[in-house]
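Batch manifest, entry 17 of 40.
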Amino acid sequence: MAVLPDYEYDVFISYRHNDNRSGWVTQFVSDLQNELAATIKERVSIYFDSNLYDGLLETHNVDKSLEGKLKSIIFIPIISHTYCDPKSFAWRNEFQVFCRLAKDDRLGPDVKLLNKNVASRILPVQIHDLDLKDRLLYEKESGTVLRSVEFIFKSHGVNRPLTTSDNRTDNLNRTFYRDQLNKTANAIEEILEALLPDEEPVPVPASRATVVSRPDRDVSWFWSELLRRNVFRAAFAYVVVALFLHQMLLLLTPFLELEERFTNFATAGLMIGFPVAALIAWFYEVSPHGFIRTNSEQAATNPFPSHRKKPFTSLPLVSFLVLALVFQYGYFTYIKPAIAPLTTDAEGNGIISIAVLPFENRSRDSRDKYIADGITDDIINRLTIIRQLRVTNQGKIQQYQGKALRLDAVARKLDVTILLTGSVERHDNHVAIRAQLIDETNTFIWGNTFQRTADNITAVQSEIAQVIADQLKLKLDDREKKRLHVKATENPTAYDYYLKGRSLYYKYTPAANDSAIRQFKMAIAQDPKYARAWAGLGDAFAQKYGRFLQEYAWTDSSFVAASRAVELDSTLSDAYKAMGVVYNYREEYDKALPVLLKAIELNPSNEKAVGNLGTTYLLMGDLANALKWEKKGVGMDPGNWIFYQIIGWIYRLLDDLPSAESWFRKSLDLSPDQHDTYELLAYTYVSQGRADEARKLIPRVLQIDSTDTRVLEVAGLMAHFAGDTKSAKRFFQNSIENNSDYKDDRSTVSPIGLGQILLEEGNRVDAEVYLTRAMENNMQEIGTGSKSFDLPFYVASVYAIRGNREQALTWLQKAIDLNWVDHAKVIHGPYFQMFKDDPELVQMMTKIRAKTDSMRTKAAGN
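Output type: structure tokens
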């Protein structure tokens, strides 16, 4: 019987039978009974199902006998890896049932102890550390935080029940079995004593009653103690001092040349100091004897007034600091000059320049960086909607990724007056997005932390953009307000897939591109109307053909995806950019031009659309405009090697070879593994009569991948143009041997170079085999309607190698009609050497040079 009537047992011990296979629970119960016998005068009754295998199994229903046994005062669950399982017998039919019974019976789920503290009637004994999910499950069911007596032995890689034989020094928890057993018995004793009839209290000497007596520690007692110990006064003083110091820190930061991370660290220190100050105020005060405890005998006779008991809380000092705060607020709100606009728009509204620095990934998992990058990109896209902002594009800010720099110096370098910085921290399903607005003097304007779950993260970019507009007092028209708050998708899972896809796409490797396609497809499966995911899919499909040289049919897939993106969101810059890319790859330059201009109109910060527009002009033969837009692109994204390569290519075509060389070298500094850049640099050397230097580049190319068919082909071309036919022959042969599809590969030129070398060696049969294959591939491509000027040029080259002057010049003219201008490949290259002095060929090249000279003059004017 229990010590109280109407209860079957004093203690009910619940456990998962799997946890007693080693006999631990049986041993624990036996030891606990002995400990209780030595601790409590009255006999304590315990229910424990000692049958390991044949008792109440997990497939049985709870009968009335078990329900009666659960009518116990105290319930001890043995918390293990497997106990917190809604499907288990112990959880469902013992733990949940006791929780329900305890809420309904006369004692209730909690017991008020004699010392006025409160204890739960559920006394967990924990034998394993729990996963967060299991801990949350326990706390949800019990309605209280898990506070257990731990019988856990921990060492490196070990998490098991504590036993009597374990040494305290070997246990990372430093717990001892007998001590924990005694704690359990004492906890049981406290609960049972609180429920037994009251005993006569021990009298307390009157002289010490004010110090050591313990009144009921209810809300009124706690409130009176807060007042007596001057905690409110100390807390208010701390807040005022902290705010004052924080504002002073922000004001002095530019003069002291402090880094942002120092300011953040100091701010965090001030925030952490508040609870510390409150605790010190609760426990300690100043007296003539120095610092004393607030509940000590000296505190009862402390002669100091309140403001002396708690330093820095005097009325004059607090009043001065409050006035200082009011002055600071008034200065920043009414006196500090407004942010000067960069210029004005057509309506006279000021234009303010802003840069969004890459948000820092502070999650434990470095793989969550894609979330921070995606949020940065989304905020930039949102801000570009506001016509009064000139937004620095994402490419230009990438150089500051992960760097600790003074923000005022960054603002000067980016030529902006406002910076937005921030971080993203993800823990399971919770995401904290921190953002702060700083002006060019390193003065804090605004900051906030947005706490979100992964299910509602998609709107935070719009919220931040709106706050920025409010803080900068920008005037938004109805169209801007509407676009600013349109969500790209309502589906958080689709958004996550999209961010992963974009992160993979920008790696520009075949494997990553394929993974990006899968992520974009999963995003679309979650939200078929997600325009950005369709645009990303269009980009990735296009790269399959354009960058990774796979089937032309990928451009059809790309066009369908890009068209769907435009259809879903006609204001999405990336949708038009994706369509422009596929038009370029399909050589429909007249169609690419207007959609890329539209992309830039919608988002002037879209550096990729700017770069693609420059490429379109290049492929159309308009070198002056190509150079103009590519230089604009490199200004927007100075870390992108592609811009430098294309600008070098344009300068080579304009016959400005020193400039071409400089830009190619900068491109290689940024990305040294680009074989195409080495090829173009080699052509530049050959055109300057520096064939030896061109040949010296070949080993660097082969270091990239000496088995890749395209790398070998580039090495062959470099050797062939530099006059090293022996090496060129070997590289061309290796390229063809490594290319299992070379007969149908319409992008390879190795057969042309190898055919010419074999013909010059007198091997006409093999030479004709390769030249015929090259001719058929190029003619088939021309037959599909291709507008590429490279195709007629290579047909002309084959005819020139064969000695067919008329056809060579005819096809060369066709290339010129398609805006081919690379006269250096004819003048300094190997294909037309047989006719280099031919008057008609010389005249054709003279016209080309006159055309490029004119464009060079126009480019200089731009």
